[in-house]
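Sequence in, structure out. First:
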Amino acid sequence: MSTSEQEPAAAAAAEEPRAPMSLSPSRASDFMQCPLLYRFRVIDRLPQKPSAAATRGTLVHAVLERLFDDEATERTAPRAKAMVPGQWERLLESKPELGELFSEDPDGERLAGWLGEAERLVERWFTLEDPTRLEPAERELFVETELDSGLRLRGVIDRIDVTPSGDVRIVDYKTGKAPRPEYREGALFQMTFYALVVWRLKRVLPRRLQLVYLGSGDVLTYDPVEADLLRVERKLLALWDAIRLATETGDWRPRPTKLCGWCDHQEVCPEFGGTPPVYPLKIVSARPPESGESGQGRMDLAPPAP
């Protein structure tokens, strides 16, 4: 998944704190990992330092998205590799704070190595898929739907393919390595989340979910059935109940794991001797979404023209 669903830190920090209004795969994963991390990101809106790995993922996603602007015969590995520096410049223009990643790199060696890694990831994609035979129905598509319970689900899907017969495939690019078999259920959570949104929006059950791991050169696929999506819907409803309870009570407990070492918020985390900011919300029930707030996401699932 790309980072395009994340708001720039500066814009987010300027907003008034408010109760959570919707759920995305990233934020759902945050809460399952650590409720206090969810609070820091969603309610306190604490800034996060730019990450070289995450930014490289954003860069690779941008290249793979824009490559499909070209005619099929022009979608070659050399062409994609040559797009990397230009897309990095575009990314810097939209998010100048990313320049901090290489502020202590006077000779440009670290930046050159980092761009080279992005180029290698892009080139590896061509060993996994053939873009000359693909005509995506959607790329970097924002989707949003509201369940009967009032829970609003939203996110950004990297790519949607639709066959001439109408079968839908949801594709997500990952710049890391494929997980071991015992961790694949967690990896598929994001994809079944998106499948649920598509199903609720269009009453179309996606035929295939596909994770493309550029870091290891693996492709993980899963063909969901209706029971899978109903199961993830129940899980999300239970998760949302827990989030609403924490919002009402202000009780956001940390959940220490080995991932804590990579957290940006150690200074304000009790597990590291810190003190969280004063809880910015009144201890009241999270209000339900209002009918006037952002509506359903655009989604055109018609098969591409022959």
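Second:
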Amino acid sequence: MQARSDIAPRQVRIVILPLPGSARSAAYGLQDMFGSANRLLQEMQAAPEVHFTVEVLPALPASESEVVQPAIVIVPPILEGDAYLKPQPELCQALRAWHAAGAVICSACAGAFLLAQAGLLEGRRVTTHWQLEEKFRTHYPHLTLDTDALLITESDLVTAGGVMAWVDLGLHLVARHVPPSVVQALGRFLVIDTGERQQRYYRSFRPAMDHGDRAILRLQHHLQARFTERHPIAEMAAIAGLGERTLMRRFRQATGFGPGEYLQQLRLQRARELLENRRDTVEQVALAVGYEDTSAFRKMFLKHTGLTPGQHRARFATRPEGV
């Protein structure tokens, strides 16, 4: 049944709150995305039931009451500076007030730090850019962080991971208010993937080397040069010049991983690079990074990356097959 043309569409008010250093492409890209959704709704429905209105506030008003209560509030990614680490009492007060009044509060990338600072993430799962994982855990160790996820959605809070995850965030928010056919049409118009993604597809392993623990650094250098070999804990402890229990404690303290986990990450990172840049078979890649059992390699790769080796190659290979 076609909607009546004399009924005004429901207004979905969206406020975007960029901080100093925020990605302008995200703030105004979201504005364009919602505007495109409006145009498609107009084209596809004689009387669209929804209309998105977007306001980008470069500076928060003296009081959040000066802004009409929004349905959605978005803190976009931050590319420069460390404003997301500094106290932002006015912004946090506004976020809490809007949330209490029923707004869906959202963040992308470093924006999650502001939601945490506002106290909105207590008891919730949250994601942010995977490169900010250590900083987030340092500042908010009690919160449940999942940087494998590209998007974590709840009815009142949505956090997105990477810098460009604002695209996924925007599509998700549009999808909350319009039929799936409109979301699919929006994806085709913008030439973006509307399928589910995960941040771990894009994660790379960059081990900490600036921790100042020379014994652990000596072992890290050894493992980097010989990651395809087996390394019993007794051998690693001898290389570091430490007792086994001391090694386990200091290695995790310095790198965030146990020695075995660390070695696994070195192998997986090299496997990603081989799959992306060479045409070796999966069996050859497995052997090249230290796995004699290809099946075990496939399972480990899928567990840590969310993709099979073949899917990873299809998505990220520098040269398409047959070229």
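Remark: The mean pLDDT is 89.
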